[in-house]
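Researcher: Go.
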Amino acid sequence: MSTTALSLFGAAAGGLAYASLIERHAFVLRERHAPVLPRGARPLRILQVSDIHLMPGQRRKVAWIKELARLRPDMVVNTGDNLSHPESVTPLLEAMAPFLDLPGVFVLGSNDYFAPRPKNPFVYLTKKVTPPDTPRLPTGQLVAGLASQGWLDLSNARGYLSVAGIDLELVGVDDPHIRRDRYDDVAGPADPGVDLTVGVVHAPYQRVLDAMTRDGAGMIIAGHTHGGQVALPWYGALVTNCDLDQRRAKGMSRWWPGADGAPDAMAPSDAAWMHVSAGLGTSPYAPVRFACRPEATLLTLTPRD
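Model: Structure:
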């Protein structure tokens, strides 16, 4: 083998070791802001957790999530894919325990219903979605645990919360990635009597984002993409695992019907603010992250300019 080939092999092996042994455990808190509240309102702090993909024995991840209680958020939004194993519900609820007495909402992802399975990672480049045929996970136990102290299940549902003096209307759907979304069940104009209408969805498919923004949602909170999970430095995500464009694979951006591929500078005045979390986990069959650290996010909603 030539010296060049050996060097390339060594770099690839080193990158894989870093992605599997170091970066996927390098949890980070992101902080993002969105000016979506009425003038004069106090800021509202929302902790978003997403795509935990918890396996039994992942004590480091559980401990890191619990430690986020030090942030003292006003409310919590869980955007799904909590599980990766039938025995993950108990440790997942342990991780969420410090937050369940706060106002909170959640939606479910495909991995809250079905166990993950091995798959060719290059399938993600094709945007092909394979119908789930793996064993069912204890979804009912998960839902009961998250709702035990009042969190709202927004799977194809609307709800209302008053949080720190801010009146919120919350509109959610079940996971669009496996076509469980039924937006028609919750469709309708944003309630003019609230301070903000928030859309919550696991997988940010355009059909749902368009419907939510047409109905007047000012903020949309999503997960699912893992931020691409493997990204290129100075380029970003290669895929989003849905029909969202790569520039919106993670972080805060703007969304409006027709936004696909368009820069935020083109956003109309009534465009929604959208946050997509890169999430905290990976599939147990693809336990790597590269240039895309696992994350939770503290979203601070502030008054509009």
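Model: The radius of gyration is 19 Å.
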